[in-house]
Amino acid sequence: MPAKPKLGQNFLIDHGAAERIAAALGDVAGRTVIEIGPGRGAITGALAARAGRVLAIELDAEFAADLRRRFSAERVTVVERDVLRFDFAAAQARAGAKLRVAGNLPYYITSPILLKLAASHAALDLAVLMVQREVADRVTSQPGSRDYGLLSVTVQMHGPVEPLFTLPPTAFSPAPQVHSTVFRWRFAPRFGELGIAAPAGFLRFARHGFAHKRKTLANNLRAAGFAPHAVAAALAGAGVDAQARAEALPLETLASLWRSVETAENSQLNGAEEGGRR
Fold first, then answer.
1. Is 178 exposed, middle or buried (0-12, 13-18, 19+ CB in 10 A)?
2. Which of 5, 71, 16, 87 is closest to 38 using CA atoms?
3. What is the pLDDT of residue 228?
């Protein structure tokens, strides 16, 4: 069946790469593996040969029907659904163990899928994902790199990531205009060690901090409405230069700054409420 460009379909035709992706999941005998966007089933076959069960999440009805014809229902369950609406927690409960995930992610919704996986981290153990090389560079980059940003922080606060290998356009049909990189993501949230009691609050803080790359962190936060004195005090307390940009700061420092700013703003709010009651 032909690819449908509007669904971001670039199908893997490199059999060796499919085997490497499946192998990168480790020992999955007896385990449930979720495959995102199986398409023509290149990776599905490699997964089915190794896993106890494969849940293949496919949005396209024609490909879903074809996968059901080609693979035994005892090994591969095809779920015709948008992965952004898939309930990973329910699947994990049915499997009785944390899930492993693999997939060649459609370029046009790569970031939403990564955020969906981050939000579903409690149900997941490990993921091996193929994305556009530029996205993989952002996901795996370190502070000080031009690729380091909000996506890097969001993914890495949920566990370590590592690039595995890169494929040329000729590994796909139709051939995309870009290279693709496979990376491995181990879900081991760092909220506790980073002192992040409210991950959503920290991510809002980080989103504002990275809002404009040409601006300093302090200017970005002030523009977002954070109290200038709280921002200045937090930077000074952490020994961070007032002219520092967010992309220069490691996750640990960003988390420390967030805690300081939150504490200062909450103290000011509590003081104002106390004064109003007098």
1. middle
2. 71
3. 92
Distance CA 21, CA 23 (A): 5
Residues of the chain with pLDDT under 50: 3, 5-7, 270-274
Query: For 8, how many CA atoms within 13 A lie in the half-sphere containing its CB?
Result: 15
| Amino acid in position 200 | A
pLDDT of residue 263: 85
Q: Which of 164, 206, 207 is nearest to 185 (CA)?
A: 164
List pLDDT tens digits, range 209-243.
999 988 999 999 999 999 999 999 999 999 999 99
Tell me how crowded residue 204 is: count the other CB atoms within 10 A of its CB. Answer: 13
Which of 66, 17, 67, 70 has the alpha carbon at shortest distance from 46? 17
Token code pair at residue 79: 């779920």
Partner residues linked to 58 by β-bridges: 80
Domains of the chain listed by start with CATH number: 5-189 (3.40.50.150), 194-277 (1.10.8.100)
